[in-house]
Amino acid sequence: MFDAIIIGAGPAGCSAALYLCRGNARVLLLTHGGSSLLQAHTLENYYGLTSVSGSELYQQGLNQVRRLGATVKEEEVLDLSYDGNFILQTNVAAYTGKALIMATGSVRASLPLPGLKELEGKGVSYCAVCDGFFFRKKKVAVLGNGAFALHEAAVLEPLAATTTLLTDGAALPAESKLPGVDKKITALEGTEHLTGVQFADGSRLDVDGLFVALGTADTNALARKLGLVLEKNYLAVDQTMHTNIPGVFAAGDCIGGLNQVATAVGEGAIAGMEALKFIRAQAQHK
Amino acid sequence: MSLQVTEATFQEEVLAVPGPVLVDFWAPWCGPCRMLGPVIEEVAGEVKEAKICKVNVDDNPDLAGKYQINAIPALMVFKGGKVVASALGVQSKATILEMLKK
Predict the structure, then answer these.
(1) Residue A82 and residue B39: Cβ atoms within 8 Å?
(2) Structural domains present in chain B
(3) Is the C-alpha dihedral spanning A178, A183, A187, A189 positive or negative?
């Protein structure tokens, strides 16, 4: 059991980790190896540093939290739930924590697929555990080809009549035994309810449900699994980085705003300190 | 407190009511629904001009089917038997209060 689990190891996640570690908390920092900071060639607008490369700052941040005792793991988060503590399932293991900090980074643009937005909740879903139940004995498809997509498909397979993996042009994963279609998707069919998927070659597939699980589980997908409120695709927080769920805090690009290292570090510090307060109050309560 | 409504009582408790009725479609196995639950109770405790109800979709599959509930938690506001507002997923209290004004 960790005191705090932080998802994301960019400036916001590492800054939160610094304050938690220095407050003597056991911290797990999970990263799938990416950060928009790595795309910054040089930064010249961060306090005290005349010029630094994004990748150098990122590495130094990680080194700093490791030195302070944080456990850093390069694993992909696949699922998130709550049973009194927060339970994270990655592609490697499951972890529990008393507090959770979302530092999941910039929000991915949604797929420009005709019908996707309109059919949300009418067959299009972003959470197999939440919505799979409604597709018992129906035809479902999972959009994606990574570990996250396979995880969602594994939840659906025992429930649905058929579970098909749609990769939208990418290669079908070799480890999957599910039926798959690797053609490009051009549109979703249905007005009142999703009825099918159309492919670039003119063919189509009957489906009642489409579960979107492209790439890694992003802010949006994780928020839906746990029940975090989103505002315009960003995690909703108050001024002290509290989300709508007690014990869950958020910082950095995933809450919107300036998308700067300076603000991410500041928000991370607040989130870390607030998480520390939460953990200590919980300990006193017990 | 919110009122648990079933297929047997939905007509009387929700559809026949002229003023706003908030219905929270939920299920006990749904994690996000459990996060929304306390917010619904808070709204129920504060708002006097609207009725706050909950429908367990496991126990009332016909209602879930009728209102095409394919994802939960799902919130719907009824007025005079008609759906005037709806939202999917966990919502903030402010959003729910806003929905009730529609």
Answers:
(1) no
(2) 3-100 (3.40.30.10)
(3) negative
Sort A134 into a burial class: Cβ within 10 Å, 0-12 / 13-18 / 19+: buried
pLDDT of residue A216: 84
Supply the pTM of this predicted model. Answer: 0.87
CATH number of A2-108+218-285: 3.50.50.60
Query: Cα separation of A226 and B90, whole Å?
Result: 9
Better-scored residue on pLDDT, A233 or A156: A156
Q: Taking residues A255-275, what's their average pLDDT?
A: 96
* Catalytic choice (B27, B30, B39, B97): B30
Q: Among all residues of chain B, which has the CA nearest to that of A221?
A: B89
A159 interfaces chain B, CB cutoff of 8 Å: no
What is the Cα–Cα distance from A268 to A284, expressed in whole angstroms?
Answer: 24
Contact list in A for residue B75 (CB cut-off 8 A) is: none
Kindly give the residue spans of alpha helices, DSSP state H, lying in chain B. Answer: 10, 31-46, 61-66, 93-100
ipTM of the complex: 0.74
Give yes or no for residue A61 having a pLDDT over 90: yes
- All residues of chain B having their beta carbon less than 8 Å from the beta carbon of residue A127 are 32, 71
